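Reply to thread "Modeling small-molecule complexes from scratch"

Following up on the discussion above, here's a worked example others can learn from. I took a protein sequence and the SMILES for S-adenosylmethionine and predicted the complex. Inputs first:
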Amino acid sequence: MGNDERMRAQPSVEAATPPPPPDTLPEARTTDGYRRTTSFRSRRSALSAAQQRTWERLWPELGILAAPRDSADAPDEPLNTGAWFGRDAPLVLEIGCGTGTSTLAMAQSEPAVDVIAVEVYRRGLAQLLSAIERENVTNIRLIRGDAVDVLECLVAPGSLSGVRVFFPDPWPKARHHKRRLLQPDTVALIADRLRVGGVLHAATDHPGYAEQIAEVGDAEPRLTRVGPDRGELAISVVRPSTKYESKAQHAGSAVTELVWERRSERNRP
Ligand SMILES: C[S@@+](CC[C@H](N)C(=O)[O-])C[C@H]1O[C@@H](n2cnc3c(N)ncnc32)[C@H](O)[C@@H]1O
């Protein structure tokens, strides 16, 4: 084979590394080029034709894509949420909203609170977009991307009244525990983004993960655990029942509810 033929037989660099299909996120890498360990699986999530139409109509106004924090596209400044929602109201970030069942119900029950739903799974966000339109809900916005990138680059310190993490992926195998979202670093980042009195609300049906979340939250010096008899909080902690609740019930497992409040600097231990 001559040189020319050999060159033709080789796949071009472009052909060997096609761009990611539009329904999966680009792979996140650290500054030194390693693939980042994430708390989510990269899964394809093609939309139906109807979902695609809804997406094209609503996403430009209600959604944004978060660039990975180590990428050239990472923003230098946090989001102007007042401009995005068209008002200044208490702000909640829900991490890993799935198809948005809790997001929708809780936003409807607290119309004076603005909710940003963060999810990597596009079909889940598309379902939430359809529900927002159907129910005519005005206090939800959506961000597609890794919640850690969102907290780090798009959310200002001390700006959130609440962070919700319902049924985070438990990564049950010991060798995957490093992929769990609620680790000391992420909980510290959440505590930093909460305003004094802001609430971190987590729920899980996985006993081992519940223990880990409790330990990590209790060890964070800016957070104080809130018991069920605590009076009024900055945001509601009443969750609707979702498919994860039903699954847990069927499997005979309990759902653990964990709530912390961000304490003031003066009250730090
Ligand atoms: C087990 S599901 C729970 C969905 C929803 N909270 C509920 O209760 O129905 C966990 C979701 O979190 C999302 N997720 C995991 N890690 C994430 C991250 N770092 N940023 C955004 N979403 C994430 C996954 O894509 C998945 O949809």
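What I'd highlight from this example: The chain has one domain: 63-267. The chain has ten helices and eight strands. Questions welcome below.
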